[in-house]
Amino acid sequence: MEAVFFLNRFRKGADQDVYEEWVREVDYPTCKKYFRSIVSYTAFKVKAESMKESPYDYVEYIGLTSKEDYERDMQKPEMKKLLEEWSRYIESAIVVFADSI
User: Fold this and answer.
1) Looking at residue 48, what DSSP letter applies?
2) Could you read off the pLDDT of 5-21 as tens digits, one per residue?
3) In CATH, what number is assigned to the domain containing residue 26?
């Protein structure tokens, strides 16, 4: 299975509670409804005790049908709107595509 991981740094001044509610109420349902390339999707908050070692605040795991399918979905207006909203909360992200072994 192919996957993409997002290693996210949270935007200073943004409200984490509001972001986490947005993930549950908007992000998850939108991905499920519009993007067939996404097989599974879970966002994780990095635990406080890990913050000393990790420069990231959130990690997202997205299981994919294929990278090519996902890249097609990235062109949809619904994805562009979602990314615009997401960037209100996320300062920067490292994106890693991977294959399971």
Assistant:
1) G
2) 999 999 999 999 999 99
3) 3.30.70.100
